[in-house]
């Protein structure tokens, strides 16, 4: 049990990190280079992604429970990536467009945690497998839905997602002291740890809006390329 519990966190651009990036790259190429095949087989791909996502949730929380490591400080589905993963499950079942826009913008933070991993387990660890599976699905799902279902973001979607993010950040800020947690890394800050909380929160809001603005342009480009150049359904 100790063997499974113990791990050495992966290093940025270390072997495990590069392996994670390579696996994501392979799935991204399969998706982006075969839009017509993806669209034609969406009735099989979508439930497959849904099942894999559900299994990832079982692996994550099953690990916490089996190894008696479930704590409200670390194990609740309050990290943004976990919330996005749960929203993705609901979206894959319901196909609600409103969820798509929130997932698309929230997924941008997953790029940060994937490219600059903090205290992440290697691929030989159950939580490392969970991390990789979660991020591959979360990062590629917006592009999959654009390609497979021809969904486009609307102009006001960014502001709606930003409003939900703002509510999440302020809620987590007050929940962290109660739970003893570090959700959204607002307690043990990954950078600029010497800043006061108000200043740091203002910075989070500014950077988040910039990130959403960049993501908006990326999603618009993807929509233009895969929807307007291909035959619509």
From TrEMBL:
<feature type="transmembrane region" description="Helical">
    <location>
        <begin position="45"/>
        <end position="64"/>
    </location>
</feature>
<feature type="transmembrane region" description="Helical">
    <location>
        <begin position="76"/>
        <end position="94"/>
    </location>
</feature>
<dbReference type="Pfam" id="PF14808">
    <property type="entry name" value="TMEM164"/>
</dbReference>
<feature type="transmembrane region" description="Helical">
    <location>
        <begin position="199"/>
        <end position="219"/>
    </location>
</feature>
<dbReference type="InterPro" id="IPR011737">
    <property type="entry name" value="CHP02206_TP0381"/>
</dbReference>
<keyword id="KW-1133">Transmembrane helix</keyword>
<protein>
    <submittedName>
        <fullName>TIGR02206 family membrane protein</fullName>
    </submittedName>
</protein>
<keyword id="KW-0472">Membrane</keyword>
<feature type="transmembrane region" description="Helical">
    <location>
        <begin position="128"/>
        <end position="147"/>
    </location>
</feature>
<feature type="transmembrane region" description="Helical">
    <location>
        <begin position="12"/>
        <end position="33"/>
    </location>
</feature>
<keyword id="KW-0812">Transmembrane</keyword>
<feature type="transmembrane region" description="Helical">
    <location>
        <begin position="99"/>
        <end position="116"/>
    </location>
</feature>
<feature type="transmembrane region" description="Helical">
    <location>
        <begin position="159"/>
        <end position="179"/>
    </location>
</feature>
């Amino acid at each position: 049990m100790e063997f499974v519990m113990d791990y050495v966190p992966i290093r940025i651009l270390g072997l495990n990190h590069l392996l994670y990036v390579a696996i994501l790259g392979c799935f991204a190429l399969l998706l982006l280079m075969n839009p017509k095949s993806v669209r034609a087989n969406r009735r099989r791909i979508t439930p497959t992604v849904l099942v894999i996502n559900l299994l990832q949730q079982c692996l994550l929380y099953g690990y916490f429970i089996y190894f008696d490591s479930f704590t409200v400080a670390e194990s609740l589905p309050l990290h943004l990536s976990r919330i996005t993963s749960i929203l993705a499950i609901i979206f894959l079942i319901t196909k609600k467009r409103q969820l798509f826009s929130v997932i698309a913008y929230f997924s941008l933070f997953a790029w940060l945690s994937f490219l600059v991993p903090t205290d992440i387990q290697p691929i030989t660890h159950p939580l490392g497998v969970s991390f990789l599976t979660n991020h591959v699905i979360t990062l590629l799902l917006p592009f999959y839905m654009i390609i497979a279902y021809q969904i486009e973001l609307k102009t006001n979607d960014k502001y709606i997602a930003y409003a939900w993010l703002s509510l999440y950040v302020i809620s987590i800020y007050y929940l962290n002291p109660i739970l003893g947690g570090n959700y959204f890394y607002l307690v043990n800050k990954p950078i600029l740890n010497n800043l006061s909380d108000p200043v740091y929160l203002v910075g989070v809001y500014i950077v988040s809006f910039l990130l959403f603005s960049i993501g908006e342009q990326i999603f618009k480009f993807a929509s233009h390329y895969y929807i307007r150049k291909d035959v619509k359904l």
